[in-house]
Amino acid sequence: MIGQLSKEEVNRKLLHVLAVILPFSIFYGPLYANLPRYYACVIIFLLLFCSLLIEFFRLRKSAFANWFSNSFGSMMRNEESNQLTGATYVLGGSAICSVTSLHSELASVCSFLCLTLFVLGDAAAAIVGKAIGRIKIGKKTVEGGIGCFLVCVLLAGMLFPSLPLFSQLWGGSITLIQILIISAAVSILEFFPIKWNAYTLNDNLYVPGVCAVIAFFVNSL
């Protein structure tokens, strides 16, 4: 244990980082396969359907639930034992971004940017928050939010401009003010969950899509 950071939480977030395959597939898959973008959208929705099917059997069938718990229980949070896992919500957020990417090439690059920043920034926020987080806002920590913001700034400012076709489809170099606004959006939105009655919407589902829309408008600055 490192502070409040468990080995299981680290493993969970390392697995979470593998989800970066999703935005890269949504963005680059159709381009390099020379296929319409809706092909990627269909594939992501099929993966989401499969994930929901697994969740259904996990929550309804005790034998399957026991097998799932023995196989993946160490990477699950306690509250996920009787509700959807974060992985399914990540697929849901990816599905929303895949639909957003159908609007235009600019929308596709915004979805690619924000989904990637969210996946990696969220992992950084959880690890930093669990390790050194002290100041809480709801279930999140300010330290985790700062960690998320810094990771997003570094990725958007240093990694993405060097990726193939990014700057071209963005419409030029991404500016510092654009980087700061988008990174702040990814970091801050997690602190203000969407609630309806007693239900809180999982941020994996809506933050990437909302940030993609913000990035689309920020692009005009």
| CA radius of gyration | 18 Å
Q: Helix- and strand-based class?
A: mainly alpha
In percent, how helical is the residue content? 55-70%
- H and E string: HHHHHHEEHHHEEH
User: How much of the residues is beta strand, in percent?
Assistant: under 5%
- Please count the helical segments: 10
Q: Based on DSSP secondary structure assignment, what is the total number of beta strands?
A: 4
- pLDDT average, as an integer? 89
Count of the separate structural domains: 1
Largest sheet: 2 strands, antiparallel
Shape, per Cα inertia axes: globular
Give start-end ranges of low-pLDDT stretches: none
Biggest sheet: strand arrangement: 1-2
Euclidean distance between termini CA atoms: 45 Å
What brief labels describe this structure?
two-stranded antiparallel sheet, globular, mainly alpha, 221 residues, single chain, 10 helices, 4 strands
Task: Summarize this entry quickly.
With 221 residues, this protein is mainly alpha-helical. It has one domain. The protein has helices at 7-17, 21-33, 38-60, 62-72, 86-100, 105-132, 142-159, 166-170, 176-189, 203-218, and strands at residues 136-137, 140-141, 195-196, 199-200.
